[in-house]
Write a structure and sequence with these properties.
alpha+beta; three-stranded antiparallel sheet; 3 strands; DNA-binding; homodimer; 5 helices
DNA sequence: GCGACCCTTCGATGGTTCTCAAACCGAACG
DNA sequence: CGTTCGGTTTGAGAACCATCGAAGGGTCGC
C-alpha cells in the first residue's frame, strides 16, 4: 500500500496541531508515542477502548496535522512522533503539552 | 451584573485549553491580549470581522477554559490573559503557542 | 425616566467531529 | 488460491461548534 500523505514542515498550522492534541484520546496517543522516542508503534498497540475505525480516524487527524508520521511495513502501519519537525516549527510546544498533561492528570 | 464564573487553577484541563486555542479567532484574541501584559481589553476592542454574538461566544470558551479573566467594569467587560495561572499549570505552553503563532503566520 | 451603549442570551442554521459496525483491501501465511 | 491479519473507508447517527440576527439586561449620560 502507498504511503499516506504527510504535510511538510512549512505546511504545519498551529491551529491544526492544537486541535489535533485537544482530543483526550489523541493527547494520550501522543503521550505514549513520546514515552519511547524514536520508536514506532503499530496502531493495534493502543488499547484506548475505541474501535479500530475510530482509532484509525484519530491517527489520520494526527497525521494530517503533522504530529505523527506513518510508515507502512508489511501489513502494519508504524506510527512515530514528528518531534524534530514540531520542535522546529513550534519550539517548546510539544514539551509543554506533554509535560502539562503528565503533571496535570485528573481522575476521569 | 454578576462576575462570570472562572475555573480555578486546579480545574484547568489541558484539553480544554488546547481546544480553546485551536480556533484561529480565539488564538488571535489570546495573541492580542498577550501583547500588552497586564492590560485589560474591552470586547469591542477586538475587530475580527465577527458579530458581537460570536465574539461573546469565543470569550466564553476562553474564559471557561481558563485562558482569560473577565472583569466587569460598569457596562464593559474587561478581558485579560490568565498568564500566571496558565504558566503555573502548563509551564511553557502559552509561550510556545504565542511564539509559534507569531513566527508561523501564513498568508491567509 | 429615557435612550444609548456594551455585552449576553436565545433560536436557528449549516458545518464539523466522534463514534461505531460493516464492508473493503493489500500483505502475509498456509 | 483461500484465509487471516492490520488498517482503511464508508455510511450513519448523535453530539458538538461557529456563526448570525434578534431580543434582553444592566449601566451610564442626560
Amino acid at each position: 500500500m502507498r504511503e499516506p500523505h504527510h504535510p511538510s514542515c512549512a505546511e504545519l498550522e498551529l491551529s491544526d496541531v492544537l486541535h489535533a492534541l485537544s482530543d483526550p484520546a489523541r493527547l494520550e496517543i501522543a503521550r505514549r508515542l513520546s514515552s519511547a522516542p524514536g520508536e514506532e508503534w503499530a496502531c493495534s498497540a493502543f488499547d484506548l477502548g475505541l474501535s479500530k475505525a475510530t482509532l484509525s480516524h484519530h491517527f489520520r487527524v494526527l497525521r494530517e496535522a503533522g504530529v505523527v508520521k506513518t510508515r507502512v511495513a508489511g501489513r502494519k502501519r508504524l506510527q512515530s512522533l514528528r518531534r524534530e519537525d514540531l520542535d522546529t516549527c513550534f519550539p517548546g510546544l510539544l514539551d509543554a503539552v506533554l509535560n502539562g498533561y503528565a503533571g496535570h492528570r485528573h481522575a476521569a
